């Protein structure tokens, strides 16, 4: 291992200005997180508590082992999408430790529109299940939901990836031996009732949790039968008559205690397949990343300096340092876990794509997880590189990256554009987890390029039609395109649409990766079968 040598000048004006710029971004992230953590409106929260119920975030806190971290996923999903709804889409998802075992926790927030599911709530639930499934994490679902948010039917009901996929995945996960526990802490109506019904063990709170395919009103309308909540779907009935639920709890706290007991009896926790080394802090302060990431999109970031601040002891065994130098590849450890890192240090050329292919192949051979740090304008264009076969070099990189079945992760640290975004393990290639830093951006191309391309197309059409336009008219045409691309490419838009699992700040990155590397080291190894490499 070689210690990466930092050339950073922490006394420079540039460092100071970058740091100030990044600190403002981090403050914005924390403000958004705070707004999400509050939940629904004051009145809804007060009513919730008055019913004797514990607020959802506190339920999660009481469920997990005291003092252990909770890695929240999709916390900004749905940001600014639904009127009067805070980010998070009315559901909390994340990984927490229960009785010493990592579990996926999914909790409805009944203070947000009765805990009903918007399209984004469905996608967030489905995503959490997929992460749990891939990593064989037990799933604990705290159910307190009115089911579908009826006005958003098209995003909830008909398609794959929506509400029905929750059930489909429950069955698939169960077949693969992933334990699933539901805690019915509120109403579970119609489709919602199938979530607990498809679980292995169900806890229900007396006088508070109800499960039925149709509530009392619907039952009366459909059959004329008059029946109260308790008789139709209460905890006592389901635990003693129907057998739909298994454990009757007296209140939320009791239900959470029973749930912890269930997790305790799930059997042996899988052991890691790898022995991590003792964790070490990087040799350089992680906070310095704030001063390294360029505040100006036109000025590239020195990403080698970032890698030096993410790996243990800043020790990095670089692979092919003299070849394909627009991509840095090599091995280091994060909190003791070995990881293969690919970090952009410029535009992707033929050599960089070939190096990436070779490197990914080695990591697969050695069963080492991959971490892509994406900050790339794309692949090089032009006659020379085309004649060198950049298309087949890029295809090789994509084949290697896409085929690799080792755990793989992406962090968008800077601007990640076009095919570069895709080749650096973009979302369509199903990373095990994907994050953006607050400065992360991604789009087909940058705002200025998009505005210019569309202006050129318009100018050609104008030419065909014998029209011309003034500089001012051209600018008036370009300005809204630029704005649209700027809004699109931001990390928070990606988080709102669940195109990334979360926005994390640089200083959290090592801890987040440590947790994920630990979890993925405990799942069974999957063989990789590479697709055809175009030679
Ligand atoms: N679709 C859309 N909005 C819904 C909704 C639904 N299924 N259920 C509740 N809401 C909205 C309410 O309109 C209200 O909105 P507001 O805050 O803008 O006023 C908010 O959610 C809270 O509802 P409220 O009834 O005041 O809360 P509550 O805690 O007393 O009861 C429920 C929550 C979920 C038990 C109750 O609203 C209910 O029974 N909803 C219908 C459930 C149902 O039949 N779902 C079938 C879906 S397949």
Automatic annotation (TrEMBL):
> Highest taxon of the source?
Bacteria
Task: Identify the keywords attached in UniProt to this record, alphabetized.
Answer: Transferase
Read off the Pfam families from this record: Carboxyl_trans
Signal sequence bounds: none
Domain CoA carboxyltransferase C-terminal: from-to ranges: 278-527
SUPFAM superfamilies listed in its UniProt record: ClpP/crotonase (SSF52096)
Annotated InterPro entries = AcCoA_carboxyl_beta, ClpP/crotonase-like_dom_sf, COA_CT_C, COA_CT_N, MCCB/AccD1-like
Q: Where is the CoA carboxyltransferase N-terminal domain?
A: 22-278
Q: Which GO terms describe its molecular function?
A: transferase activity
Residues in coiled coil: none
The protein, known as: Carboxyl transferase domain-containing protein
Q: Which organism is it from?
A: Neoaquamicrobium sediminum
